[in-house]
Structures are given as structure tokens and as C-alpha cells.
Amino acid sequence: MFGSCYLYWKKMETRVRFAPSPTGPLHIGGVRTALFSYLFAKKNKGVFILRIEDTDQNRYVEGSEAYIQDALEWAGMRPDEGPANGGAYGPYRQSERKDIYKKYIKGLIAKGKAYYAFDDTETLAEARKNAEIKGNTFRYSAENRMQFNNSLTLNKGEIDAQLKGDYVVRLKVDPGNIISVYDEIRGTIKQDSNLLDDKILLKADGMPTYHFANVVDDHLMKITTVIRGEEWLPSLPIHQLLYDAFDWTAPQFMHLPLILKPSGKGKLSKRDGDKEGFPVFPLNWGDAAKGFKESGFLTEGFINYIALLGWNSGTEQEVFSLKELETDFSVQGIQKGGARFDYEKAKWINHKHLSAMEATDIYHFDLIKKQLQGIDSLKHLSLLELLKERLFTLNDLAQEIEWMREPQNYDEKIVQKLLSKGALEVMEGLLDIVKEVSELSDLKEALMPWAKKHGINTGVMMQSLRVALVGKLAGPDIFEICSILGKDVTLNRIAIAISFFNSKN
Fold first, then answer.
1. pLDDT of residue 2 exceeding 60
2. 379 and 455: one domain?
3. I want to staple 464 with a disulfide (CB 3.0 to 4.6 A). Which of 71, 278, 423, 491 is the partner?
4. Closest by alpha carbon to 227, among 311, 137, 344, 349?
5. 475 in a structural domain
């Protein structure tokens, strides 16, 4: 069941924003937030917006914004509006909206909903220390704000003098109220206002805090739906107070569950990826971290798996195209509990998308062309057609085509086992038959009657041929391998295998 504001927003164009901070590479938790925002917008024929929340200049990391844009575009989620895409509601970087925030902060102060605070760090540190000594949590609130140096305790002349120095602006939270907010995933959330701080809205450097900037920006950009991680749930009552202070209608809220470590215990981090050997970012972040793209994932496979982290369609279907996700996505399918990350499942999903592709399409990837270097280009498409259903990532091709390169390394345990079953004689017969057939496409048809006539075990025959050609028992169809290798190479490898088996006999 949707919240009371749902019908209000239903009448408006759906506008959903993804608002990351440019403090480093985009974690897959951020990608999922972007994806669910994108899917909700597209499902409702709405607009997907990228807004860069760079109010904390101390944490700004060069290159992060470009990385975020590149990652979204690689993932198929090109913003309809944003710093690189333009739009009617810009600027889309918060650092470029300082004048807007100052205007609205003055409005709040004029309405008595916010106030200037001039307390120095030493005073606040002392107050915090005293609270801790008493076993309390320090809060700058209605309970003690009249004891501090702020515009509620000073006269106009004193305030004007203080405004020439450093100050912050705080939200004036009225005590004795129960704040009620509806989340589309988690239902009604209630908070006693007595337990809330008078949160800082404007910092001493003139930049707004997240709480203030995101409320102002969401209103001015006509955002109808806010989708973000559950770590922002504790801030929801503060945001509701700000909407109420401005007499604005709040958007729909949806707070997504955490993405958990593979063990299911705790939030997934870069350290988990480093430790267990899987990526947690969509693209490479310099040399510091490998991305899903460079690990051989298709956009389709990556997005498909990310969508399944905390959402299901209510059916048995697990493999989706982005277009199918845009159609099938629903808020009702989002779970409340954390979603455990499973890299093997991610690779399986990617495998499903790879195996469904045409070999000609797979061939366009630079990762594929790089692995095929040194192999006759006339055989590239045949190889991809043969091997695509064995690939879980694009990078798996290198291992799958090892048999195309020489010299061959034989699995000696298998060699000894085959020798005990008469494999040497079998391979000598195979050599003769390969010489006799005019086309390798006729080899299978020639081998079966020969094996039956001489009482040769079919399994031993096939295993002997496979080991002779690829050195081990695993691999794709052996007759397809013969066709790709060609008659001369096939004969040469069988001859070399006979020589090796003789040396071990």
C-alpha cells in the first residue's frame, strides 16, 4: 500500500534522482540505487536525473564525477538530466548552487524555523565531554540551545556582529512532537522530536549539509521519488521537518536494504572484494580496484545481477534484459532484508547473457580480440561460436582456447589411465583414419564403424582423441575442435601424442 503522498505525486511527471557524492569510485551499492531509480523512472515513463552532491569539499576526489557518469553510461543508464546531459533544473552540482541555498536558508530563519549558531569548537567539545561524563549522548537541541551562543540567545546588534565571523545555521526542532513519515518499502516510521538534534543546515564554509541541500534540490528539481540506501533512514524525520518548515509536500521515499558480504554478515566493502578476488565497482578505478567491465562482464549481465540484489519479479525468471527490467520492475518486489552478494551467481547470470549472443556480437569486444591475438583470424568466429556457451565472463576465453596454441601439456594421470586401456593402439588407428578421410566433417561417421569392428571402447577412443588434441579430457565438442584445427594440425598432434604415450609406456 502506498503512502498518503502517492496520489499527489501520481498526478505529476515521475522524476527520480540519483545523487552520489564524488568521493571515489561508484560502489555497486550506489549502482543498485541508481538502477532502481532508473527503473522506477522508466517504468512510470518519467525522468532519470543525476545530481552530484559535492557539498563536502574535503572529501572530494578528482575524477570521481567523470567516473560516475562513465559508469552509468556503460551500465545503460544514461541520465536524462545531469551535469553532462543538461536540463531545465540545473545546475546539477550542489557546489554550483550556493546562492540558491543561501536564499532558502534566509527564508527558514525569517520564519523562525532555523537560527544562527556561533559556538566555537572548544565550547562544543567541552559540552560533549560533560555529557559523556554523565553517561549521556550530547545533543544540541531544545533542551540546551538557550545555553549556547546563537541567534536565539543574542540581541540583534550582537547577532550582526557575530555574523561577520564564522557561524553555522541550525534547524529549530520543536520538542514534544511525534514525526510520522511513510516509506514505500518499510511503512510508517515514527520519531519523537525530543530525541533529535537541531541539525546543522549550513556549515561554516558556506556550504549546505546533505540534509538541507537534498531537500531544497529535490523540491526545486520537482523530484517525486527518492530512492536511497537504508543508512539514510535515521535522517528521514529531519528531512520531513524541513519539508514541513517550508510548507512543501515531501516526495515518496524508498530506502533500499544493504548489500551484504558473501557470508551474509555485514555490509559489502572493497576489502571483501580484494580479499576474495571479485570486483565491487562497475569500472576500473585506476590501478587501485578492478571493475566488472574489465573483469569481463557484459553490461546486460552486470545490470541483471545488480537488479536481483534485493528485488525479485515474483516469478521464477532470473535472466532479464534491461528493457524487461524497465517493464517488470515494481516497488512491491523490493525486499526489506539485506541482499547477500554472490559472485558465482553474478557470473552465472553473465554466462546466460553471453551464451545467448551471436558470435559476431561477442567478437566486437576488445577483451575478446586481445585474447584471440596470434590465432588465425579466419578461425575467430568459429571459435567463438564453439566456445561462447562455456564462457562465464569475456576473460574466460583465454583459458578456453589454450588448446589452439602449442605445445600441448598432457595430464599425465589421464595418460597412464588411458595407456592401461590400450590407448596407444587406438591412437595409431586414429592416425590412419584421419589420413584417410577427405573431410574432417566425415571423421565421426568414419570412427564409429571402425571402433565397432575392432571392439574398441568408444569412451577410450574419444578420450584418446581428446587428450591427443587438447591434452586433457575437458573441453567442447572434439569433432568441432578437429574442424577448427584442420587436418594437418590434427594429424600432427595425434603423432606427437603417440610419441609421448610411447615414452610413458
1. no
2. no
3. 423
4. 311
5. yes
**pLDDT value, residue 11:** 61
Q: Do 383 and 447 sit in the same domain of this protein? A: no
Report the first-to-last Cα separation within the chain, whole angstroms: 75
**Cβ neighbours for 253, distance < 8 A, ≥ 6 positions apart:** 3, 181, 182, 183, 184, 226, 236
Q: Crossing angle, helix 412-419 and helix 487-504, to 10 degrees? A: 80
> In which band, very low, low, confident or very high, does the pLDDT at 10 lie, cut at 50, 70 and 90?
low
Q: Domain containing 440: what range?
A: 406-504
| Total domains present in the chain | 2
Q: Which residues pair with 311 in a beta bridge?
A: 334
Question: Does 390 share its domain with 410?
Answer: no
Measured distance CA(468)–CA(228) in Å, rounded? 57
DSSP class of residue 139 equals -
Contact yes or no for 260/268 (Cβ under 8 A) = yes
Contacts of 307 (CB under 8 A, 6+ apart): 32, 35, 36, 39, 320, 325, 329
Tens of pLDDT, residues 170-184? 999 999 999 999 999
- Report residue 493: phi and psi, to 5°: -70, -40
> Cell digits for 176?
514534544
Q: 422, exposed or middle or buried, with CB in 10 Å at 0-12, 13-18, 19+?
A: middle
**How far apart are the C-alpha atoms of 412 and 418, rounded to whole Å?**
10
Burial of 349 (0-12, 13-18, 19+ CB in 10 A): buried
Q: List pLDDT tens digits, range 95-115.
A: 999 999 999 999 999 999 999
Q: What is the pLDDT of residue 408?
A: 67
Confidence of residue 9 (pLDDT cuts 50, 70, 90): very low
Catalytic residue among 270, 345, 472, 487: 270
The rounded distance, in Å, linking the Cα atoms of 70 and 78 is 9
- Please report, as a single letter, which amino acid is at residue 343: Y
270 labelled catalytic? yes
CA distance 156 to 151: 8
